[in-house]
Each structure stands twice: as structure tokens, then as C-alpha cells.
Amino acid sequence: MSSAENRGTVQVVKNRYKPSGKFHFPSPNTPIRNEEGSLMGVTNPRDIVHIHAYGGESIFFESLGKGKLLATRCDNPDCEEGHGSIFQPFRIHCPDCLVKATVIDMTDIAKKTSRIHTFMITERTGAFNLLPRPLKFINVEFKGVSTVLMGYLCMGEPEIGMKVIPIFNTRAPTSTILDLWWVPEGTGEDQLPENFTFE
Ligand SMILES: [Zn+2]
């Protein structure tokens, strides 16, 4: 990796993406050889900067850094299956009627009613994982919400039915889903990880 100081950044100006700086960083290749030393190929190390557009989900990620968990709700009176349904994860459109859903603040619902629906502990993670292992993934269910949300339990041992509380990276937000972690009910403010708060 080279010239990190010129790493690409993007601004939206008049509704258009305007990249500036470098987005592709090649590194020297290395030969691939067999046991006899014959050349079989080369590695091509490449470092690229992805531009990930949030579109209608921007407000969801922005709000995590402010200690708020937003969801959406179908308010279409003609939607037989979905009317009144609350979606978490945040869905821009109702999957039943395809009408744009209403953004709602469900922070209080999450603080009062979140329980572990099921969980998974993994020792092996995908590329670019930033979380410590073993990694405790939990599926969180909320009262009155139609869907469950995948999340990260950062302390304690998960159990099915256990009450959990959302915590937010409000001090140094990353503008990603990693700004939302979960702790067992009863966790004190002084036990929270660096940069995380209850609200
Ligand atoms: Zn609907």
C-alpha cells in the first residue's frame, strides 16, 4: 500500500459523485513457482477504494452515530400483508406493496424489548473483519417488529431469549453498521467499550 495520504475521497456535488485522489494502489507482484522452481504465474496485489453509496439508507447510518436506531414502517392502507409492519433492518420500500415505507425512530422499542432470537459464535471470519474473535453474532428480535436484526454482542455470553441493549459509537462514528453493538441488559455505562454510549 502506498501514498495513503492521497487516498481517494468522494463528495456529492449537485447530486453527482465527485471523486478526488487515488482509488487504485498496485504493489509489486511476486512469482508463483512449483516444487521444481518452474514459473507457474504471478500474484497481483491490488488495493482499491470502494465507493459504497447508501442511497435511501443514509439516514439509518447517520443516526447510529447520534444514538438513534431508525426503522421503517409500511403505512400504505391498501397493503393487505404489510400495512403497519415495522422493518428492522431498515427497508426503504415495503416488500409486500413496494410503496416507500415511513422512517420511524425505534430506539425506545430497542432499549425496552430487544431479545436474542438466536445466535452464532464464529472463530473464522471473512476478509477485513474488524471485530475481535470469537465473534458473537446475535439475531435480535423486537416487540412489534416483523423482522430480526443481525448484530454483534460485544460482551457477555449469548443465550436464546436473553435481553440485550443497543449501544452506539457516538464519540467516533464510522458511519457503518459497526456503530451499533449490543450488550446484555444490566451492563453499566462504565463497562462500555471505548467511544460507545447508551444514547
Ligand atoms: Zn406495504
Strand order in the largest sheet:
8-7-9
Number of domains: 2
Computed Rg: 21 Å
Number of helices: 2
User: Which ranges are low-confidence, i.e. pLDDT below 50, for 5 or more consecutive residues?
Assistant: none
Compute the average pLDDT: 94
The CATH homologous superfamily name of the largest domain equals: Nucleic acid-binding proteins
Describe this structure in words.
- With 199 residues, the protein is mainly β.
- It has two domains: 4-48, no CATH class; 55-197, Beta Barrel (OB fold (Dihydrolipoamide Acetyltransferase, E2P)).
- 7% of the residues lie in helices and 34% in strands.
- It is built from two helices and 15 strands.
- The protein has a three-stranded antiparallel beta sheet. Strands 10-11-12 form a three-stranded antiparallel beta sheet, with no helix packed on it. The chain has a three-stranded antiparallel beta sheet with strand order 14-13-15, with helices on one face.
- A hairpin with a 2-residue loop joins strand 1 (9-13) and strand 2.
- The chain is globular and about 65 Å long.
- Residues 74, 76, 79, 82-83, 94, 96-97, 99 line the site of zinc ion.
Q: Features of this protein?
A:
OB fold (Dihydrolipoamide Acetyltransferase, E2P); three-stranded antiparallel β-sheet; 2 helices; single chain; 199 residues; binds zinc ion; 7% helix; mainly beta; 2 domains
Q: How would you summarize this macromolecular structure in one to three sentences?
A:
The protein has 199 residues and is mainly β.
